[in-house]
Amino acid sequence: xxxxxxxxxxxxxxxxxxxxxxxxxxxxxxxxxxxxxxxxxxxxxxxxxxxxxxxxxxxxxxxxxxxxxxxxxxxxxxxxxxxxxxxxxxxxxxxxxxxxxxxxxx
Length: 106
Known about the structure:
Elements lengths: L21 E12 L2 E13 L10 E3 L13 E9 L5 E14 L4
Antiparallel strand pairs: 1-2, 2-5, 3-4, 4-5
């Protein structure tokens, strides 16, 4: 929101980190939203301690991967950030929507 014009300008994109990261699954749940069943996966993304200033609700997109090519192009939403006390890594917990399907309510 632009406070001087009172107009919403939309989200802006800026790169916080680009580099190597380790993505580990935490848990996967099926959630119903309306008549759509959505599979949501929580993942931990580990990066160097100085990778960037991540905040909850930030979005991140996977552009390349070595082991799990299904992650390429997926967008993850940051839910929490933890900095290692030894200043060696940053753990960013994210939610990843990995699919939707119709829920039969009959």
